[in-house]
Input
Amino acid sequence: MRLAIFNQKGGVGKTTTALNLGAALSRAGTPPLLLDLDPQGHLSGIHGQAPLEANRSLFAFYQDLHSLHELEIDWQDIGQLIPAHQQLIKVDSIFGKGPAILNKLRLGLEAAETSRPERPCLIDCCPYIGVLALNAIFACDRLLIPISTDYLSLQAADHITRTLQVLEPVLKRRVERRYLLTRFDRRRRMSDDVRNKLRERYSNEVLQTVISENVTVAESPSLNRDVFRHNASSSGANDYKSLLAELIDRGDL
Output
């Protein structure tokens, strides 16, 4: 199963979710492949030892025709990572938006999966619609959309919906999506208001699990750790365990 983690709004916990969901999968016995598809490379930075050269990053898959398998590096306690590089920002201008480039990641993953068909894939997307994000959308089985509990995030969710409605005739399928509430603060009425409005609009596509505002979740990336390595008994770790359990129960992972 391929899960792309995407939102056109920054600061919603996209990379943090990729990191900690990947760690939860590994702890459950199914280490994933993580793809850092964001030129900012935040996920690769958390790894701490990802190669800095463009020709050893995901950019080499697009520019130099390397296979995805050639670019994998191990990530202790998580699985494998294909790191990003700032050169990924050039993919739009180099390749345009023809069918060949839009389907490139899907075909690359299909080739990689011939040897590891049981391995799930998590794609940390860039926060804008371009060739890279479109590659992830064309390649994924599900789109996981983190939504922080503020009113601007509701507008972002609507924007994503309109974008997907434009793409679906080209894809010839409906993109299955799951909305994940992040930075949820039970002390604030606004958190419940955003959750209720999201459920009114998107019904059962809104996950029951929420990721609470939590110090452990916030500070662990700066220590090059996932939330479980930082504090496995924290409420943040429990939230991500619950997220994995819900996604598995729904058949999304």
